[in-house]
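Task card 7
Instruction: Convert sequence to structure tokens.
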Amino acid sequence: MHSNTGLSNIAIAVLFAGTLTGCVVGPDYHTPDLAMPAHWGSKDESKSPHPPQLSQWWKQLKDPTLDALIEEAIASNLDVATAKAKIREARATYREQRGALLPTVSGTASGTRTLTSAAAGGTTDSTFSTLYTGGFDASWELDLFGGNKRAAEAAKYGVDAADEQLRDTMLTLIGDVASYYVQAREYQALRDLAERTAVSQRKSAALTHEEYQAGSATGVDTAKADALASSTEADIPTYQISYSEAVHRLGVLLGKPPSALEDRLKAGNPIPSPKMDVSIGIPADVLVSRPDVRLAERQLAQYTAKIGQAEASRYPSISLTGDISSSAANIGDLAKKSSIGWTFGPTLTVPIFQGGQLKAAVDVAKAQRDEYFIAYQAAVLSAMEDVENAVVSLTQERLKYAKLVSSSSSYRRASDLSRTLNKAGIEDFLDVLDAERSLYSAEESVIQSRASIATDYIALNKALGGGWAGQVDASTPAVVDTDTGPHLAKAK
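Output:
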């Protein structure tokens, strides 16, 4: 009768304790309400903004080679692999913290054999006895003030942050692959231009030497013609170096040896040309579209929860511990013909004096929360700055490109006319060389501006948060361990 009453009291105590475990201390997290401008400073207020179209934005460049490189980079890049590993780490940490909310149970078993000797009448009697014991131990920290709950909450936000870190890594990767690809095509085009121009200029120099031999050109003409051709030829190695560096960087971004893409990109392709208009939405869009902003917000949430975790350490804690054991002379009699005993009871721990450490730990957690709140604000401002700069750069570069194309066309007409007048004996040959030099410089500028437009387009989509929208498997480990069970250590 007393046993049943005791068990009933235990059950009531456990139920009451379970009710208390719903309590938490510390601030509950709420997403900050930041004041955002209603429109971008670089856009016309009278026009209704359209949400940015960020899904696979790079396909607007209409370059299948670039599309393939981006997909390969997402699958093989080492920074992405590292970010996936951090997701696995964060998920494991969350499971670990969740486990602290549950009771722990362990089993014990032992067997002893005892020899008892007694001397009597000059003889010694020896008696052997055997005792087998088995049982279970259990403990449960009731988490009255939610310290473990806040730790699990922080770990859950940590998982979210790791997910956003992966998204941010992929966004950066896509932007880098696209930018270096544009650079490679730009330097290919500049190298090819230099080669074509140098051939033409070298022919002009040879012709000038013939005219010099005939007495119709001066030594200054031949020297200037040779110098112009040599100067243009000197540009070829410079562009080849820059092209190779871009290709090598692309190889590394794809998780391959630097020279892996040389054969693949050797055949020249035009510099990718983006569509004319890009929807940029409103500034508030970056709060949800930019993974680095979402990452900063999740880190703020994580460190807000850690305040409650530290605060709970200042309150009393209760642990329930108990065990049940059985002992018998024969192993088959355990829990049958054996002695059975159990114990159960709470343990109350009250922090009384720890030299201000617990309060200091709370202050540390609050200061860290403030740091991440400021970091979140800074991330939002930086995102807005990136968009504003990219919009201005793209808009102005397109205006510049149109003028450069017109300039190049005019220089070509001037070069053709200058050569015609020189043949007619009306214009000096030095004017021809000057016109060719100006044409070459103008055509270089056109190529560079075309590449800058593509680069600014990439930067704008990156600033708006355009990354990889597809599913990514982060569960597969990079290293698969074998023979992890108990085994003999191998000598090294």
